[in-house]
Design a protein that fits this description.
With 214 residues, the chain is an alpha/beta fold. Helix content is 42%, strand content 14%. The strands form 2 sheets. The protein has a 6-stranded mixed sheet, with helices on both faces. Strands 6-7 form a two-stranded antiparallel ribbon.
Length: 214
């Protein structure tokens, strides 16, 4: 928690299919620091009946860029998963599927705030998708509306690691900052995640003395 800046910042994370670790991160930050962290979500999630009110209550919305800047100017944290729905649906192995997205980096430079990478160990072992094929990937790219079957709910051991903030640098380009952020997040994954992921191993970590002591 000591890596969280006292002022505003953009929290960047890998998007697993169900964001258990990130949700617990939000609650811990509020409980221990009294700080609000807004989260950017895809507008398509509003199509799920009954959930819009829930999203609004926990500050998850399809914020515009101007709204994001205003949130940061007020001193809040802002969570963004650059991989979005594509990463959530098709990345069961912690791979970052950001493509050429640099919007979060442009936002950080405009608002003059740091970027904080975070990573939840075993996040892809809680829930997984099935049916990841060439056809479903093609359908997603064409429609942006593919939803694969989800299974899981496994009580694996989760730990969220907060990386060192990447400070605001007026001399860096958005592309360079995005790449720097990606490298920082991948370094967190390399240090704290055994790959390929394994559900049984993640479950066993609940009973490992070394992990329990942590």
């Amino acid at each position: 928690m000591e890596h969280l800046p006292k002022g505003p910042g953009i929290v960047i994370f890998h998007h697993s299919i169900i964001l258990v670790g990130y949700t617990l991160f939000l609650t811990k930050v509020y409980r221990e620091k009294g700080r609000l962290c807004h989260s950017v979500i895809d507008h398509g999630l509003y199509g799920i009946p009954g959930l819009k009110m829930f999203y609004d209550v926990i500050l998850m919305r399809d914020f515009t860029k101007a709204e994001c800047v205003e949130i940061l100017k007020k001193g809040h944290l802002l969570g963004i998963a650059p991989g979005g729905a594509r990463e959530a649906i098709f990345s069961n192995d912690y791979s970052l599927m950001w493509g050429n997205r640099t919007g979060f980096a442009q936002l950080a430079l405009e608002a003059k705030v740091p970027i904080i990478p975070i990573f939840t160990q075993n996040s892809c072992e809680t829930y997984r998708t099935i049916g990841k094929t060439r056809l479903t990937k093609w359908l997603y790219e064409k429609t942006r509306r593919v939803l694969l079957p989800i299974y899981g709910g496994f009580p694996v051991k989760l730990r969220t690691y907060i990386g060192e903030p990447i400070p605001y640098d007026p001399n860096i380009t958005p592309t360079e900052l995005a790449e720097k952020t990606k490298t920082a997040l991948e370094n967190l994954q390399d240090r704290h995640q055994k790959r390929p992921g394994n559900i049984l191993r993640a479950l066993s970590e609940r009973f490992d003395k070394q992990y329990k002591d942590d």
